[in-house]
Write a structure and sequence with these properties.
Elements (H helix, E strand, L loop, with lengths): L7 E5 L2 H4 L20 H8 L16 H4 L3 H15 L3 E5 L2 H4 L10 H16 L3 E7 L5 H7 L6 H16 L6 E5 L9 H5 L9 H26 L4 E8 L2 E3 L4 H14 L1 H8 L5 H9 L9 H7 L4 E6 L3 E3 L8 E3 L4 E3 L15 H15 L3 E5 L16 H21 L3 E7 L19 E3 L11 E3 L1 H11 L8
Parallel strand pairs: 1-2, 1-12, 2-3, 3-4, 4-5, 5-7, 6-8, 7-11, 11-12
Antiparallel strand pairs: 9-10, 13-14
Helix pairs in contact: 4-6, 8-10, 10-14, 15-16, 16-17
Length: 477
């Protein structure tokens, strides 16, 4: 792909969705551990009605507390990834496994040791770690005490956590992503920011204040990380996907432009070191009340990212007036159904060309190396006699990898790598169901955590193996 560096083919998971064992070895719960497998989860995810999420009736199932038991299967899982042929693996570190309440002075050594062993296993198989420090996780005590990232105190606590981890793993991790999909704090605030909405409060301002605090924490993590090891590389990470205008009516085109500016707000700050020009008017129009400390602007300006990473599942579509147009799911929110896109087996519309368009959009905007750190399809799979025939996943991967490579070869995109999301089946964020499967590795487990947890290779495993071994050439055959 590029002569300067090796292209990173791999997969991605998060601690919140895969590790399980949420009270093991000194760990304490995170916000994600309080998302039940019932309608309260959907209210928390999509309707921001999370006030009752901390209350328990005693009979809930909490998928995050179980994950796919990666905590005990990591060695076998890494061996499967080596067989697959990956040279990189993105995982996150659980903040509550290192600092159980978030406010300890010293880290939980048992938590540190788990990641020590995981890194050793990756090193044994020559797999490059890409590490996220906060992937939709914050210790639950910080939610209860500070309402998560609403409070400035959490910036300092995160800084202590980030610096501790970066010092302990110095020289073993090069690529760091401080926050997963930072822009999702505006769509799923309890998950993205540990925020509990309350009636009578200015909740929109709270969301943007939380986003600002994460931006400052992100910049301070970069500052500390570069001092610890100048070889460290830091990436912004956003939920991306081109927003199309529903029609060529200029009003629809302008609506799409406005939506994209808002979606790219946080990555703009991470790349350019300042809020974009439109934001002052936007904040006044929305009545946002933000507290920006005098030192914040210098912190943001002096500590920008080295690369821009993103998730891509599907594109979005918008109009000035919706007028009853059908809506469909996309990553963390809903969007207008695009009449030019098919709806396949996934919950979202399949738009592989949209990935190429998104790559061009981000390259033209940021002039930074790009990194696809999540891409995949969440579907029901049929498991029969140790096999899963997932031709739909192969079709999805084929189209997206092909358009990615065309973007590199024909459009000149500077791309670091491609990581398939949920490469080992894990419970989904929005629904909490492992039956909404993403992986090329099947986990024998149902939504209620029944099953052997044994791993099996799907048909897509062999296909992705060929993609990697051919450096993508197989998609053009």
């Amino acid at each position: 792909m590029t002569k300067e560096r090796q292209f990173l083919w791999g997969g991605a998971v998060s601690a919140a969705q895969c590790e399980g064992n949420y009270l093991a070895d000194g760990r304490q719960p995170s916000n994600f551990d309080y998302l039940p497998l019932d309608d309260r989860r959907l209210k928390a995810v999509y309707k921001n009605q999370a006030a009752s999420i901390l209350e328990s009736t005693g009979d809930e199932i909490y998928p995050g507390r179980n994950g796919n038991d990666f905590y005990h299967h990591y060695q076998a899982d890494i061996a499967l990834l080596k067989e697959l042929g990956v040279n990189s693996f993105r995982f996150s570190i659980s903040w509550s496994r290192i600092f159980p309440t978030g406010e300890e002075a010293e880290p939980n050594e048992a938590g540190i040791q788990f990641y020590e062993k995981l890194l050793t296993e990756l090193e044994k198989h020559q797999i490059e770690p890409i590490v996220t420090l906060s992937h939709f996780e914050i210790p639950i005590q910080l939610v209860k005490k500070y309402n998560g990232w609403e409070n400035r105190r959490v910036v300092d606590l995160f800084g202590h956590y980030a610096e501790t981890v970066m010092r302990r793993f110095k020289g073993r991790i090069k690529y760091w992503i401080p926050f997963n999909e930072m822009n999702m704090v505006l769509h799923i605030p309890f998950i993205g920011g540990g925020i509990l909405f309350e009636e009578g409060k200015d909740n929109l301002s709270i969301q943007y204040q939380a986003g600002h605090h994460q931006l400052v924490a992100n910049a301070l993590a970069i500052k500390a990380g570069k001092q610890i090891d100048p070889e460290n590389q830091f990436g912004a990470m956003l939920a991306a996907g081109k927003t199309y205008a529903y029609t060529c009516d200029p009003k629809d085109v302008f609506a799409a432009l406005q939506q994209e500016k808002e979606n790219l707000l946080f990555s703009d700050v991470q790349v350019f070191g300042d809020y974009p020009k439109f934001f002052a008017h936007f904040a006044a129009e929305k009545g946002l009340k933000l507290v920006i400390q005098p030192e914040d602007r210098a912190i943001l300006k002096d500590n920008t990212v080295d690369f821009v990473s993103f998730s891509y599942y599907s594109s979005a579509c918008t109009a000035a007036e919706e007028n009853g147009i059908d809506r469909v799911a996309t990553n963390g929110y809903t969007t207008l159904r695009n009449p030019y896109l098919p709806k396949g087996k996934s919950v979202w519309q399949d738009d592989p060309l949209g990935l190429r368009i998104t790559l061009n959009q981000l390259q033209d905007r940021y002039h930074k190396p790009l990194f696809i750190v999540e891409n995949g399809i969440g579907t029901q799979d049929v498991f029969t006699e140790g096999q899963v025939h997932d031709d739909y996943r192969i079709h999805y991967l084929h189209g997206h990898v092909k358009n990615m490579l065309l973007a590199v070869e024909e459009d000149g995109i500077d791309l670091m790598g491609y990581l398939m999301w949920g490469i080992i089946d894990l419970p989904s964020v929005s629904e909490g169901k492992i039956s909404k499967r993403y992986g090329v590795i099947y986990v024998d487990q149902d939504d209620e955590n029944n099953g052997s947890h044994q791993r099996y290779k799907k048909d897509s495993f062999a296909f992705y193996q060929k993609v990697i071994s051919s450096n993508g050439a197989v998609v053009f055959e």
